[in-house]
Amino acid sequence: MSMNREGRGATAPEIHEVHQDHKTFTGNRALRIEEALLFEIGRPEVTGVDLPEPPKVAKRLGRHERKAPINLPGLAEPEAVRHYVRLSRHNYSIDNGIFPLGSCTMKHNPRLNEKMARLPGFGDVHPLQPQSTVPGAIELISELSRWLIELTGMQAVAMSPKAGAHGELCGMMAIKAALEARGEEHRKVVLVPDSAHGTNPATAALIGFEVKPVPARADGTVDPEEVRKRVGPDVAAIMLTNPNTCGLFERDVVEIAKAIHDAGAYFYADGANFNAIVGKAKVGDLGVDAMHINLHKTFSTPHGGGGPGAGPVVLSERLAAYAPRPLVVSDGGNVALLEHAEGGAAESLGRMTAFHGQMGMYVRALSYMLSHGADGLRQASEDAVLNANYIRACLQDLYSAPAGDRPCMHEILFDDSFLEGTGITTLDIAKAMIDEGFHPMTVYFPLVVHGAMLIEPTESESRASLDFFIAAMRDLAMAAKAGDTARFKEAPRYAPRRRLDETRAARQPKLRWQAPEPMAAEAAE
Amino acid sequence: MRYLPLTPDDRTDMLRRVGASSIDALFADIPAKVRQTELPDLPRAKGEMEVERILGRMAGRNVSASSVPFFVGAGAYKHHVPASVDHLIQRSEFLTSYTPYQPEIAQGTLQYLYEFQTQVALLTGMEVANASMYDGSTGTGEAVLMAHRVTKRRKAVLSGGLHPHYRDVVETLGRFAGDSIKAMPADVRGEEDILGQIDDETSCVVVQSPDVYGNLRDLRPIAEKAHAHGALLVTVFTEAMSLGLVESPGAQGADIVVGEGQSIGNPLTFGGPYVGLFATREKFIRQMPGRLCGETVDAEGKRGYVLTLSTREQHIRRDKATSNICTNSGLCCLAFTIHLSLLGEKGLRRTAETCHANAVLLADALEQVPGVEVLTEAFFNEFTLKVPGNAAEVIEKLAEKGVLGGVPVSRLEPGRPELENLILVASTEINTDDDRAAYAAALKEVLA
Which residue numbers delimit the Glycine dehydrogenase C-terminal domain (chain A) (predicted)? Predict the structure, then answer.
């Protein structure tokens, strides 16, 4: 990858001179073009879809036909293409540059995967057409299941959960079902370390568990002694992210698992950070009973501006029987898609979604896995970890790492102690990164350190890209320490928008476009 | 490996800079006895051509909807999607961006979500809509949980016309959350006495229209009875295109409207990813699940958009959140909103009218087959067909003749003899006179 560094000297003071004073007639700035709302440019009488006149029939709608207009605007195709292309240019994306959002694993999304997902045999098949007409679709799910089981060393995989949090729900329901089968419904407590994603406590609470925190050591890891103190006959499970959200592998995980199992509870692992350990450790060997896998993180299915995700859940032998339906099972060469819990499968926890899950994501994930192979997957994890450590090594003299010199996994956590006395915050650093052309790292998460900055470069970055990022981050830290406050407080200056007023958005919620008064009156006529 | 930019020399240099003796030194926190030394027992890396060959072979084993006369619905529908939709959603800046947590560089995503929310509110006749759920079925589960929060009651009544898979999703969630769910028996003709189920402990009544058997339901009396008892009416749809021709649930008194948006802009893809639509009244927004995008201004006073009311959400509220949901269905929302912008009022109406007309023509054609009866009186684009024989076998034989003729009800409701001769048959704008003639002829042969 070659980068144009023209005009971007690392320390020259003129680099952040502002030329915002020049006004333009349109409000546009060359390639950056403002775009009005669909409702301001579309017209109800316009359509971008040509269909023949519908056949003339006597309608059979009873008395249910719509009488009032909807007032939906339409666009001709050139208008629609321009509207969405312009909007797209107001977004940052991985294809633009490094997207070091910690715990989100923003890696390259191979285009082969998009092509494969659009093959008619995958993209244009219905979930309820006869199974005899979709053997290849079932085969694909089965093959992906085999890879996930082998990579995790677990017993079974429930494919249908639609996203990470949905997978958590699946795993925790399986645990609850297993406890009920044992007649131990009194186990109500779920231990959740303070560093956990918010979805963990939210999921546990959703199905009636009571969440109890487990404090972290100074470096963010969990002390098995603290777990031992809290386990007892009332504890159902622990939910542990490993590697954790501080970017560290929980080195006492085996001991923690043993403490949990000895007390009769289950070990739920949040697989958000699986990308660090593929081919390096099997979670089955760590004592995990259930773990969701974010196919949109580790296995590169596109994040798409916030979804769709996919969250298959691998299960241990102790929980496999409780897997939801539908379920793809493989017995030797025979593969079957079980849609209902019949006969011997009475333990199944039930159904979590209407159909078979996120097939479009399965195709992309398998395409990614086949491309990498066992060797490439392990190499990807190693490169992800190496890239994060390289950033750590190159920034730790200027930024403050709570874990000190200790190597990290695939992401490096800094806190804001290096900013002390500057008046500049973690948020200001993030906004200044935007002006430098980067997407910021994850900020203020995990909650266990002050002003967290969590940087996850992934394996997709070249060394040149990392060096460029590091140079900019060093420059920012030095500028902050030198008291160049304006560069931070006024940032971002070059983004499509300056800082947005989030308080106003929450206090006076405006969640949809409303016709201005004269138009509203017209529409009502 | 074509996706990994580091060279062996890079790795060596970088390890030196890090001060690690080997890559394994960076993994030293993994206890030695569980560290994996062997490669996983899986194939090695492959080039694009080989991957295409493997996946192409699997895909080739399936019968795609476009290749045959196709009448399968029951919650997912084959519509024509304009070519520009799939092109636009693959713009890098949409496809490879994240949740818009840094709004200054995510205005593209935020603006289309705001437009999406407005379109969904208009279509459903409601005041506000969220930025989508995983799909219609999980959205229905969330709607019931929301009704419990609003009414502070925990008893939901589900109509027998609700899609059985949706019912199962709600029941699963209800069972684990400790709520009471009363599901009415399968109601093929829309005759159930749901009003009799509503009392002062009911949190919500969940009614689908068009229902899974195709019936268009009169929602007004249910809304009135529910409201008289302090309960909410949750309405469900699985065919979003119906909203172009059928009276909106909002106009009939619904409090929460939830449905599957796949029909507009999104391919069938064997069941997912899809996009759940979720709308409600303004007074309930703080009890709503899922992401919301709102309008605001930036530091220069320019209009802009942000994710808002996040104090409802898990990343702030943790175990007190309204839902554990963390993602929406971003790219599927985008496909929905682009397709609907292209359709506009005029195109939506015409598409919906064509779907309905084609379904009427299909019903007429199939009723000509001896022994076959259409059970549904008022419908949009799907109806229940009664055949003299086992419906699952009939569908299988039709498939052998190259017609995908619908969904046997027994696939959704197994072990119910009284439903075993029923087929759900759907038609959309894609179907032609030839398709209908082929279906009728094949059905006649299969039943002969």
Answer: 380-479
